[in-house]
Amino acid sequence: MNVRIEALAEATYVVPEGRLDFDAAGRFQEALEKAVAGTGQAPAALIVDGAALEYVSSAGLRAVLIGAKAAQRAGVPFALCALQPAVREVFELSGFSRIMAVHADRASALAQAQRGRT
Amino acid sequence: MAQRTVAADPAQLTVLNEFLRDFWRAAALAPAGMQFFELALEEIFLNIVMHGVRPESMPLVQVSLNRVAESVTMTVEDDGPQFDPLSLAAPDLSAGLADRPVGGLGVFLVRELMDIVSYERVGARNQLRMVKTLAS
What we know:
By secondary structure, chain A is an alpha/beta fold. Chain A has helices at about 20-35, 60-75, 85-95, 95-100, 105-115, and strands at about 1-5, 10-20, 45-50, 55, 80, 100-105.
């Protein structure tokens, strides 16, 4: 798996590409934690864009949960968006959709983060 | 029926994934359903690695795949110590973000995604059988 980071003024987007399995989970967790910390200052919001995320297992979910907790502690709005159907189903079954904001696309994730509700 | 045996070493998961993909392609099954079996395979295999590996012994894990009509059965057997993954407590899904424990989701997801999951200790082997009928 490759993780792309787009640090913009409006938000930092974390874009996992490929498979978020046990092998990739550690790297992804690190990427999320780094993104929460930001460079110099915390990001305005942290949005995981799942458009290129093909697969997630419980190890991947664990990394997302740790990242979401870190964002919450840092006061950074956290959201997921553009999850593919099978990945979305795993998020819903695990109950994560109830404790994290899941949006259809970047625009709606950003709009909600900017309203300060995550 | 197709069968593959590997050591309970995390690095072997790629071999099992390839085995699953080959089976899926050969059976001409709809690609959409494969993810659920990939997930079940990763969760169950890693559970065996976690619970079954002892300093003096590494269990062998045998995965069998069988298709009848639109129904796929995956059986995972290992010769490690007796361990029933279905005995693990279900995670508390009601906790908020800050209190939500990290982990414990793997077997829960397998139970949710499969139609049937059953465990049996057969002789000196753990046998976990999973069945799912795919949407046609």
